[in-house]
Amino acid sequence: MPRLTEDAALLVIDVQNDFCSGGALAVPEGETVVPVVNRLIEAFQVVVLTQDWHPPGHASFASAHDTGDAFTMIEMPYGPQVLWPDHCVQGTSGAAFHPDLITDPARLIVRKGTNPEIDSYSAFFENDQITATGLAGALADLGVEHVVMAGLATDYCVCWSALDARRLGLNVTVVEDACRAIDLDGSLASAMASMLESGVRISDSETVLAS
């Protein structure tokens, strides 16, 4: 299969066991993206994978708070924060990539959410929108101008990554059939509207591979 040019990178967001069926924070049908993502990986010269990689007791975990159930919202110093079940704890099987995901072609693996006090949905910035992960600089060094995104979940980590990439001046395509959503209280519709408004292109894997 011909590989897409080096100015385009595939960014695979958080295809990890805890976000798939049976995981601590399972995205409905999350594992069904794996075959689609694998086909995309084979087509790109530049592939970047991300992992949620939380220390135990992370501030975004409901278990770290005396009050507040999972999936409720609290206010953190950096802004609103959903409290999540404990997930993707560093070194656990839940934090590992899905076993069927092709990982060898990756140029870079970005681990995010490592600061115990700040969550990090985006592959580019922590949720304070200030602290950078280093991904933007790495893509610039590789000459990447267009980021194609796939993974989990559409309405959180994919969306935040896409919006930040646009804010950084990158062209962005989200591959809809290579993503799945949590859809918490209408979050999917809101995320899609925000991405489209920011200039993110929504496409499908066959169109991307044909290009």
UniProtKB/TrEMBL annotation:
The keyword Metal-binding applies. The keyword Translocase does not apply. Gene3D superfamilies: Isochorismatase-like. Keywords: Hydrolase, Metal-binding, Pyridine nucleotide biosynthesis. Pathway: Cofactor biosynthesis; nicotinate biosynthesis; nicotinate from nicotinamide: step 1/1. Its EC number is 3.5.1.19. GO terms for biological process: pyridine nucleotide biosynthetic process. Residues 8-206 form the Isochorismatase-like domain. InterPro entries: Isochorismatase-like_dom (IPR000868), Isochorismatase-like_sf (IPR036380), Isochorismatase_Nicotinamidase (IPR052347). Belongs to the isochorismatase family. GO terms for molecular function: metal ion binding; nicotinamidase activity. This is Nicotinamidase. It is an enzyme of class 3 (hydrolase). It comes from the Bacteria.
